[in-house]
Task: inverse folding
């Protein structure tokens, strides 16, 4: 993929914040899984079913190691971060929230960490309390903690903004919220891709990841749920695998995590995710973070020389994500189209973060987001293309 051409030019893939390209090891594992090793899991005693089950269940331990979880039983497989957050909304939050109860959110959240809480606002009278970022795009943990009141039942916050690249001090938020008896859900969709994560050190109750951003297949993901929170959750989806016994009169449920995994899962997708995480841990997430920090610093320096480029968010220690507009009114969709003609893939739009766009006074931005395979030469190609845009649009 990364050696191909687009529109007659070498591909420069800078849309990693939306979805990452896959290592050959992942592609081969998925192909082998379907071509040579496929069967349903947990269902049979034959060789292929046992093999698929063994590979599938091994991924739970891989994710636990990747996230620093104390036990693989705290890992629930999902189709991605969106399903994980909805699981918390339906299985944990909905049964215990009353009209007037509060959920604290930052304005930087992705829609996946907003809409499930709006469901509770619409259906149960829950109040959403919003915390705005600072002018540089940083999020002050003390402002988040100050928003916690007597009726606050949950804090839901991203660890890294998919628009601004802001890294959030979620450990401080979790420590302060825990002292107030309030659980915290952390959206790790962006953060887990770029730097080491340890949920024990963070101190969160829930932590979601999505596989397609972690160089794994789409339709894969997981949520870390602290064991004491699992005990407070009712089943969300009902069906096969999540039960212990079913009769005409009653049903009893399996122990977590299977209690929250109904039906035939994304077997090969999850196996592919395990391979992707092994790949990342083999590289070393600290090495990935260091490489991307060098890219970020180089890109910041180059983009700062374009005095007609408006980059949103410059928080200290931000990730290698740059959302921008051009002075003069060129629409981000036009910018993205022109860049694409030069082989450069960026995203344009609201990035599923409309409340943040409203806060910034924008309807859309173009976004270049870097990954472990990007280079400084590709930063230069982006800058050259932006200079062409500036000349084109005046």
Result:
């Amino acid at each position: 993929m990364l050696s191909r051409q687009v529109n007659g030019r070498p591909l420069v893939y800078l849309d990693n914040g939306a979805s990452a390209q896959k290592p050959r090891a992942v592609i081969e594992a998925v192909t082998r899984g379907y071509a040579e090793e496929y069967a349903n899991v947990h269902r049979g005693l034959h060789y292929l079913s046992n093999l698929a089950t063994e590979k599938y269940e091994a991924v739970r331990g891989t994710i636990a190691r990747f996230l620093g979880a104390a036990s693989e039983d705290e890992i629930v497989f999902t189709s991605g971060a969106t399903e994980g957050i909805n699981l918390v909304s339906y299985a944990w939050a909905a049964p215990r929230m009353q009209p007037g109860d509060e959920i604290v959110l930052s304005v930087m959240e992705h829609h996946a960490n907003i809409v499930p809480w709006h469901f509770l606002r619409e259906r149960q009278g829950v109040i959403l309390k919003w915390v705005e970022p600072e002018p540089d795009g940083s999020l002050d943990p003390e402002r988040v903690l100050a928003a916690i009141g007597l009726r606050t039942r949950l804090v839901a916050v991203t660890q890294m903004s998919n628009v601004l690249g802001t890294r959030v001090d979620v450990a401080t938020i979790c420590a302060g919220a825990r002292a107030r008896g309030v659980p915290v859900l952390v959206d790790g969709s962006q953060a887990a891709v770029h730097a080491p994560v340890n949920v024990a050190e963070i101190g969160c109750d829930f932590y979601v990841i999505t596989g397609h951003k972690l160089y794994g297949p789409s339709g894969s993901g997981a949520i870390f749920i602290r064991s004491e929170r699992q005990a407070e959750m009712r089943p969300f989806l009902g069906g096969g695998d999540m039960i212990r016994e079913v009769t005409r009169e009653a049903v009893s449920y399996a122990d977590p995590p299977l209690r929250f995994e109904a039906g035939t899962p994304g077997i090969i997708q999850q196996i592919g995710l395990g391979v992707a995480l092994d790949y990342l841990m083999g590289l070393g997430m600290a090495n990935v973070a260091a490489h991307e920090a060098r890219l970020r610093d180089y890109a910041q320096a180059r983009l700062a020389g374009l005095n007609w480029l408006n980059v949103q968010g410059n928080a200290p220690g931000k990730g290698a994500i740059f959302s921008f507009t051009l002075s003069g009114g060129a629409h981000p969709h036009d910018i993205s189209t022109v860049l694409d003609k030069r082989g450069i893939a960026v995203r344009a739009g609201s990035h599923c973060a409309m409340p943040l766009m409203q806060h910034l006074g924008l309807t859309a931005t173009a976004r270049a987001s870097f990954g472990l395979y990007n280079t400084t030469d590709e930063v230069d190609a982006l800058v050259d293309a932006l200079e062409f845009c500036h000349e084109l649009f005046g």
